[in-house]
Design a protein that fits this description.
About 35% of the residues lie in helices and about 25% in strands. By secondary structure, it is of the alpha/beta class. It folds into two domains: about 180 residues, Flavin prenyltransferase-like (Rossmann fold); about 210 residues, CoaB-like (Rossmann fold). Bound molecules: flavin mononucleotide (FMN). The site of flavin mononucleotide has 15 residues, from α5.
């Protein structure tokens, strides 16, 4: 992420929550707040009760021009942790104490700041500041990794040098210019897909044989859901997710359409395809379907074997490739036992598909049901990019980075 020095125009009119915690570096938050305000941002300061032992909220209210928030239960001005955090473009915690980082990574919501963070959908930038032993503590590092792996949290590395406690080491709050640059970069990043309509399919299709039996597959829908979350996180104008899995944890703004069979999946995809800018077909659509579906339960002694006949299923991806208009971007997903690049390249041949994301389903540590994946992104021009093993959210980011780059 690089803003090329356009910080002021990027931050103009952006709504930023500046979280301040109980660190000796809390006094530096006044200057950070002032820089953000000067860049045109609307800054809401939220202090943990312990932060008030280091800096007076009045200082931050005066600099930001908005009453600094401390109390979890003192919303006289109707500013609730939910509405404030869900309308913010960015939450910046500077300085972030070891205590607050660890609380966020465990989902603890015991003050206005930690509660607002648990409720937000926007990127959260964390600038840690603490004694070097605390920073290097294995548990604190594990908590930092948990947050980094979710894909929603970005860290501004602390500096190395003389610390307030007298010792030397890593833990000084990063330089103000680095923190402001990280905020600008993150705002640019979270606008990457502005005004774009993103259409995603996810999960395993379910094809009924009779009133109780069906054929399906092990796809959990997690990859497609992470693609939807990442597209939403990056400011997409509209995100439509057609999925056979549950949409329980998705933001309300993502249009979630629950489907079961490949036929209903195709119908819903087609309804949204013609004006979609980017379509990502992450669903595992059954290759075969029963010729007829019996609306009663077939009996064992009812010649069940001869009644079950299958035919090749429609290929939704090929259908979309045929209908694809100039300017539309189409990504297909393929599941192969082993890293069968040749077979995936074959699937793309003469089709109007921009990229195929190849998943090796023979491994137990990634793929179906797992939160992790490792994919190979194959472009229509033959270029190959490996994602490495990562959480599915990070894989979703790598895929969208590639698409956004291709569209430039
Ligand atoms: C003088 C003093 C300085 C402190 N500086 C830091 C610090 O820089 N970083 C940190 O993580 N904790 C620091 N602490 C400890 C935190 O204040 C303590 O962990 C507190 O619970 C943090 O609360 P909060 O995360 O809710 O703001 C300091 C404590 C004292 C007494």
């Amino acid at each position: 992420m690089n803003t090329g020095g356009q910080t002021s125009s990027i931050l103009k009119n952006k709504k930023i929550i500046l979280g301040i915690t109980g660190s000796i570096a809390a006094y530096k938050a006044a200057s950070i707040c002032s820089s953000l305000v000067k860049s045109g941002a609307e800054v809401f300061c939220v202090l943990t009760p312990n932060a008030c032992r280091f800096i007076n909220p009045i200082t931050l209210s005066s600099i930001s021009g908005k009453k600094a928030i401390v109390g979890q239960y003192s919303n006289e001005e109707k500013i609730s942790h939910i509405s404030l955090s869900q309308s913010a473009d960015i939450i910046l915690i500077a300085p972030a104490s070891a205590n607050t980082i660890s609380k966020i990574s465990s989902g603890i919501c015991d003050n206005f700041l930690t509660t607002a963070i648990a409720a937000c959908y926007c990127p959260v930038i964390i600038a840690p500041a603490m004694n070097s032993c605390m920073y290097e503590n294995q548990i604190i590092q594990k908590n930092i990794d948990i947050l980094k792996n979710t894909g929603n949290y970005f860290f501004v590395e602390p500096g190395t040098g003389k610390l307030a406690c007298g010792s030397e080491g890593k833990g000084r709050l990063a330089a103000e210019e680095n923190i402001i640059a990280a905020v600008s970069d993150c705002i640019m990043f979270s606008n990457d897909l502005k005004n774009k309509k993103i259409l995603i399919s996810a999960g395993a299709t379910v094809e009924f044989l009779d009133s109780v039996r069906f054929i399906s597959n092990r796809s959990s829908g997690k990859m497609g859901h992470e693609l939807a979350m990442e597209a939403y996180f990056r400011g997409a104008g509209e995100v439509v997710l057609v999925s056979s899995a549950s949409g329980a944890e998705l933001p309300r703004d993502i249009k979630f359409i629950k489907v079961q069979s490949s036929n209903t999946m195709m119908e819903e995809i087609l309804k949204h395809y013609s004006d979609a800018d980017i379509t990502m077909m992450a669903a595992a659509v059954s290759d075969i379907i029963p010729v007829s579906k019996y609306d009663y339960k077939l009996k064992k002694n009812d010649d069940i074997i001869s009644k079950l006949k299958f035919r090749e299923n429609i290929n939704i991806l090929s259908m979309l490739a045929e209908k694809k208009k100039k300017g539309q971007y189409l990504a297909g997903f393929s599941a192969e036992s082993g890293e069968n690049i040749k077979n995936t390249v074959e699937k793309m041949k003469n089709k109007n598909i921009d990229i195929m994301v190849l998943n090796d389903i023979s491994r137990n540590d990634i793929g179906f049901e797992s939160d992790y994946n490792e994919a190979v992104i194959i472009s229509s021009n033959g270029d190959i990019e490996r994602t490495g093993k990562n959480r599915k959210r990070i894989i979703a980011r790598i895929i969208l980075n590639k698409i956004i780059n291709d569209l430039k």
